[in-house]
């Protein structure tokens, strides 16, 4: 993998960014659009912290909502794991655009 597991595991800034974004989202008082606004805030904060954006794929939607419920209960591990994987995919997509041979040169 491009980003080592240890970087995300012990990187306080990644965890803090996710937690702060979720807290902000709870404070929003919109009838519709909390999810979109929350993900926008989260991605802006991830970029401010030097990470790529986290794109939640349609097939992950149910896992995402379940992870959000767990975060509401104080368990941030599922949402952190899901978003780490989403950021990982974004990094790999970005590398594919700017350096198409990156997999061959660094993974194989």
TrEMBL record:
Residues 1-85 form the Fido domain. Keywords: ATP-binding, Nucleotide-binding. The keyword Nucleotide-binding applies. ATP binds at residues 64-65. It comes from the Bacteria. SUPFAM superfamilies: Fic-like. One of its GO terms (molecular function) is ATP binding. InterPro entries: Fido, Fido-like_dom_sf, Fido_containing. This is Fido domain-containing protein. It comes from Testudinibacter aquarius.
């Amino acid at each position: 993998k491009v980003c080592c597991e240890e970087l995300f595991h012990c990187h306080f800034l990644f965890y803090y960014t996710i937690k702060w974004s979720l807290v902000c989202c709870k404070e929003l008082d919109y009838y519709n659009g909390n999810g979109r606004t929350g993900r926008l805030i989260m991605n802006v904060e991830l970029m401010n912290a030097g990470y790529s954006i986290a794109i939640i794929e349609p097939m992950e939607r149910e896992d995402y909502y379940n992870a959000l419920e767990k975060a509401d209960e104080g368990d941030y591990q599922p949402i952190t794991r899901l978003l780490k994987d989403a950021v990982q995919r974004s990094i790999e997509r970005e590398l594919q655009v700017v350096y198409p041979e990156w997999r061959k040169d660094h993974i194989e």
